[in-house]
Known about the structure:
Largest sheet: 5 strands, antiparallel
Structural class: alpha+beta
Strand order of the largest sheet: 7-8-9-10-11
Oligomer: single chain
Order of helices and strands: EEHEHHEEEEEEEEHH
Amino acid sequence: MVVDGDNVEAGDVYDDDDDDAKSIDKLGNMIAMVCSDGLVVACLKQFQVVDKKDEPLRVNPKKDAEYDKLFVLGDEPKLVLCGLGGQRTLRPLVNKVAEKVLEADKTEIPRPTIENLSREIHEYSKTFLDYDAFFNLFIAGTNQESAGDHKLDLWYLNNTAAIRVPDRYVVGEESHLIRTQIDKFETKTTDVAIDVIKFGFACVARKEYDLKYGYIDVRVIKNNGEVIEHIYNNLWGIVEAYLSLESDTDSGDGSDGESGADTDGESEDGSQMDSEDETDND
């Protein structure tokens, strides 16, 4: 089943048992999410990514009980992508990630680390994006030979920076079910969540058109939805610090990472959200 992106609504889930879900494993479990121009993309839906036989892969999400067939962290390192931006921006970026992974497979060279991959994708984005074509992209994965009991390496990318989020988010020993969920779809704000249902991480990225209201909301959760660790990271200060080293960008408004996004309940050190947000696990 091929779904016309123009008719997809936020939160819609389509089931198609005819697709070979396992083929996505060759690319490392990649997910692309909501585009700001209204196109909802899930599980590489409508991304023309080719497999080893140069055949395009079209993988559709399954219903709740079948998500493990699509996204099971097995013995090999996996990648998870979560993106916010226009489809003309995210499509080539996701395809570039696939190209890098496939290139490693074809040439039998080591798969690039999450850090190297993130930096390459960031540099690639600058070759075709205008400054005002803003996007957010999260790349998460493990660099070890086995997913096992290792920490995820999580990177946040936009058109001006590639920033590492501290790798304190553990991938558990058992298989993980990754569920995609669209929290909101509004004109100016889009919230996207990726939930790992067996001791994993959830990463919600909200991008206001004004960068100083951007944040990462990371939740470590159990399979019953209980939040066991909740970290609120305001990226404004980090992004501004990065930009101050790279350009003459004015970083005076909110550059300390506290004054630009404190309205969302951030504590003094930017590490916690308020109690109302901590209990919102849906």
